[in-house]
Amino acid sequence: MTSNFSLAAGFHAVVIGGSGDIGAAISNQFCDLGATVTATGANEADLARTVLKARAGLELAKLDVTDDEAVTSFARQHNRVDALINCAGILARDKEFEIETFMKVLDINLAGTFRTCMAFRPLLAERKGSIVNIASMNATLALPRIPAYCASKGGVVMLTKALALAWAGEGIRVNAVAPGYIETAINAAGRADRAHYQRIADRTAFKRWGQPSEVAGTVAFLCMPASQYATGTVIAVDGGFLAG
Hints:
The structure is a single chain. This protein is an alpha/beta fold. It is 41% helix and 15% strand. The chain has 8 helices and 7 strands, in the order E-H-E-H-E-H-E-H-E-H-E-H-H-H-E. The protein has helices spanning 21-32, 44-48, 68-76, 99-127, 147-167, 188-191, 194-203, 213-221, and strands at 12-16, 36-41, 58-62, 83-86, 130-134, 173-179, 234-237. Strands 3-2-1-4-5-6-7 form a 7-stranded parallel beta sheet, with helices on both faces. Helix 1 (21-32) links the parallel strand 1 (12-16) and strand 2. Helix 1 packs across helix 8 and helix 4 (99-127) packs parallel to helix 5 (147-167). It starts with 11 loop residues before the first strand and ends in a 7-residue tail after the last strand.
């Protein structure tokens, strides 16, 4: 008997931004569950510095999510997709007050998510598959130095809800996961300030920052039969930061 907490035979996941820390943890989680995975990086440099290691069932590919033609072509290279995970994203502290940088962040984080959702929609409809978008705690709790990041992640949340309503009739479920303070390369500079690091840790229920692997399990669950009635929802994985 197949468990509701497992993946179907031949399950294939595409993890956009899978070369990053959270994306890599998600990619490994799917591989551990027996799926095959295509994980992307924005360029050769991103792929070269990924923490992902070569393993059976894992393929790395380059994809610029701001390039319409590249995204469409990439989707067409696939025969089967059961899950699309969108976790490509950037932030640029303080520089996001410059309009060029503001628009770049939105193009990658928000428009890029929309591009891949649209490109993979036909394949996902064939499999009655799942989309999981990686949002952020900053979709609801703003920070003053990253206005574009906050705006983009708020947009990801509402895009998730809108697509969930639009595509339910095709059998496509669309959900989001909103990580809190997770130790990744994107916040390494901030974590170097130990006082700042400890203030964040003390605000959480667990008194610590999270790890990328602690996000991955929630993403995998949202692609399993056990979550088949969940769509248009956002699950916070923040160690209780927003609870109190």
